[in-house]
Design goal:
714 residues; 5 helices; 33% strand; 5-stranded mixed beta sheet; mainly beta; 8-stranded antiparallel beta sheet; 45 strands
């Protein structure tokens, strides 16, 4: 296991610094290869209706011609990402990843085959924190359609078998009104450790099916209540296509961003009390005229998340002379300036022209350490000719030059799809270290593009597993520093792509050329804990498990071991563990070879009772004991206890057992004080602290053992 260390970040949650150039990269560029047929993921999203047979009269078949979703997750827990796709006129399909580059349709054996829905959007999320991905699906439905008058939640039993429970769990969003359900988003907006749901709807009618659904949590795990109005995010006439929970002001709380049609996109700031405030105009966003797809990433490497929204680029300004209602100014890239302010960086980055845009995602396809950008596009409405110029729009892939300026390289990299692309998924389906693409084409076959050559550059993937935070780790921020003192990369779990689907949740980082280990990885959890790793091998997937984040010293910062407990960099003069490791992160091992800190524990405030003596003793078996109300002998004089107030270890005092046979070390503790037992190297001892009697122990040659807050060793 890679030893975990904290390097130069102090205690700042989500702290990011941009210091040096990105890693050097390969000269031969990757290419994408269409492997749809050979991988076994061909299917027809739906058979296009004639104008007289549209699902919704008077809409030129628009809702159905804008449909087609996909989502990925490891449904069966075998380490490979499986693929779920929605179909409008047939049962949805779950493709199981065989692990050899191919997939098999396992729908009939999962419990999903019984549901023949007019499905549209989809996402996986562990709603009950039981460790497996559940599935939520939105639909299109007309008045009187009793099958498609609600949404669907499929609970995973842990083996890849699903049962439908939306009504029972309060997430069906049922109504008698027409519904044009689009994207679904999971995130923990109130940071209670349970993921919530947000849905979007295009052109709502008598009832808006864009809803915020709060998970009731530990009392009723995976059951929900509708908090749309109470939280202040009722969208009313907003024509929502996609939404995202994401922390755009870096305050640790997920905000809610909604990409919406007809100039109605919204940004709601999280008030940290279960409610939101509409900050769209003041923030300088929402100028996208026909917002559709949405993605978030730090494209300019300045340490915060920027927002890209797809829209319609129509240089002919068709609707100025024709009977149509779209605008023409194209995509928007909102650069995050901090302090809840954004600037329009669309033209600076060169990403305005995406034709009629839909799904989009930031990715690092060439593993060179900066974020590139991809999007699907195209539309074809029957009996409607003014959209003909957009019927065969070519996909876009913009390559970042490392400064945030991009060039369009789709065809040069093998991306030639010109179908009516809608949903877009980014995932490393073959586990080879580069990012592959899956494109849903409306009323047509999809395309699976395998990335060939991206892994010639190094990479690191970070998978999050929450414990105090939600099980998926949604909202966790991951900061990677490839080289000590070098540039940093930021990812936030769950925000990479949103239009009718969901990319993989694992954070992917390109590292460029080289063999050196990754200097540091910091994971800032929604719970407030920050977990540090160091010297991480490249070309691997790192599991960041919040359950391993044992915060010994109570500063919300942890590593293994939690060296803040005796950190000579932050607290000069603090002694070090006698374990042959550099616990205090100062690149020295056990500075005092004759005497060092053999075990250390923060004494809980509740146990530091004024007037109760702290004592050091040796029992009949020869073990030393540090505890309250115990005694010691003069023979223990060469053992010392260091005392220091919480947060200030610069003035340690050695407190000996006394002279002339004194039997008790008398200490009058104040609330927040800490005490450290210091013994000669390779001494066998046993320690207890507080009233729990558990404590810590070490024998010669054994690793050091720190007490948890509960008193148990880690």
């Amino acid at each position: 296991m890679v030893r975990q260390r904290l390097i130069g970040y102090g205690r700042a949650v989500g702290l990011v610094a941009v210091l040096a150039a990105a890693p050097s990269a390969i000269t031969a560029q990757p290419v994408f290869t269409d492997v749809t047929a050979s991988a076994g993921v061909s299917y027809l999203q739906h058979t296009a209706n004639d104008p007289q047979d549209c699902l919704f009269a008077g809409f030129f078949c628009e809702p159905e011609r804008m449909s087609g979703g996909a989502a990925v997750a490891d449904v069966d827990g075998d380490g490979f990402l499986d693929l779920f796709v929605t179909c409008l006129d047939a049962p949805d399909i779950l493709f199981r990843n065989r692990g050899d580059g191919t997939f098999e349709d396992i729908t009939a054996s999962t419990g999903l085959q019984a549901f023949d829905l007019q499905s549209n959007g989809a996402a996986f999320g562990d709603v009950d924190n039981d460790g497996d991905p559940d599935l939520y699906v939105t639909v299109l439905g007309g008045i009187g359609d009793t099958t498609n008058n609600r949404y669907y939640l499929f609970l995973n039993d842990g083996t890849g078998q699903f049962s439908e429970e939306a009504v029972a769990r309060g997430v069906d969003v049922a109504s008698a009104a027409q519904r044009r359900g689009y994207s679904v988003e999971f995130g923990d907006y109130n940071r209670d450790g349970w993921i919530d749901i947000h849905t979007t709807e295009w052109v709502p009618q008598t009832f808006s099916h864009s809803r915020l659904l709060r998970n009731l949590g530990s009392g009723s795990p995976g059951f929900f209540e509708d908090t749309t109005t109470a939280a202040g995010v009722w969208l009313g006439a907003v024509h929502g296509f996609s939404s995202t929970f994401t922390d755009l002001d870096s305050d640790g709380w997920p905000d809610l961003a909604v990409a919406a049609d007809f100039g109605t996109s919204k940004l709601f700031w999280n008030n940290r009390n279960g409610t939101f405030t509409d900050g769209t105009v003041a923030a300088g966003v929402g100028t996208d005229e026909n917002g559709m797809g949405s993605t978030f990433g730090d494209f300019d490497g300045d340490g915060d998340l920027d927002w890209f929204v797809t829209s319609i680029y129509d240089p002919d300004q068709t609707c100025e002379t024709e009977g149509c209602s779209w605008d023409y100014s194209g995509n928007r890239l909102y650069r995050n300036l901090g302090a809840r302010q954004f600037s329009d960086a669309t033209d600076h980055a060169g990403v305005r022209d995406g034709r009629w845009g839909w799904g989009t995602a930031f990715l690092d396809y060439d593993n060179d350490g900066d974020l590139d950008l991809v999007m699907t596009n195209g539309v074809d409405f029957p009996a409607f000719t003014v959209d003909d110029a957009f019927n065969t729009d070519p996909m876009r892939l913009w390559e970042n030059d490392g400064t945030g300026v991009m060039s369009e390289v789709a065809v040069a990299r093998g991306i030639t799809d010109s179908g009516s692309g809608k949903g877009l998924v980014i995932f490393d389906y073959d586990n080879d270290g580069d990012q592959d693409l899956f494109v849903v084409n409306n009323a047509a076959q999809p395309v699976l593009y395998r990335n060939d050559g991206g892994n010639a550059n190094g990479w690191l993937r970070v998978r999050t597993k929450g414990a105090v935070s939600n099980g998926d780790g949604l909202g966790a921020r991951v900061v990677v520093t490839a080289q000590a003192g070098g540039s940093t990369q930021l990812r936030e779990i769950g925000v990479s792509t949103h239009f009718l689907g969901q990319s993989e949740l694992t954070a992917h980082f390109g590292l460029g050329l080289g063999q050196a280990k990754v200097a540091s990885v910091l994971v800032s959890w929604p719970s407030g804990l920050v977990q540090g790793f160091s010297n991480v091998s490249r070309n691997t997937t790192l599991l960041a498990d919040e359950a391993d984040c044992v915060d010994v010293d109570g500063d919300s910062f942890c590593a293994n071991p939690d060296c803040d407990d005796s950190n000579a960099v932050v607290y000069p003069g603090a002694p070090e563990l006698c374990d042959g490791l550099d616990n205090d992160c100062n690149d020295q091992i056990d500075e005092d070879p004759s005497k060092c800190l053999a075990g250390a524990g923060a004494v809980p405030d509740g146990n530091a009772v004024p007037g109760v003596p702290l004592t050091l003793s040796r029992d009949a078996a020869g073990f030393l004991t540090l505890g309250w109300g115990e005694s010691c002998s003069a023979a223990d004089d060469d053992y010392e206890v260091y005392e220091g107030a919480l947060g200030d270890f610069t003035s340690h005092e050695p407190l000996t057992c006394g002279t002339g046979g004194a039997t008790t070390i008398i200490v009058t503790p104040s609330a927040g004080d800490r005490y450290y037992l210091v013994v000669p190297r390779n001494t066998t001892y046993e320690g207890s602290h507080g009233t729990d009697g558990a404590g810590f122990e070490r024998t010669p040659g054994a690793p050091g053992c720190l007490p948890r807050a509960s008193g148990a060793c880690q």
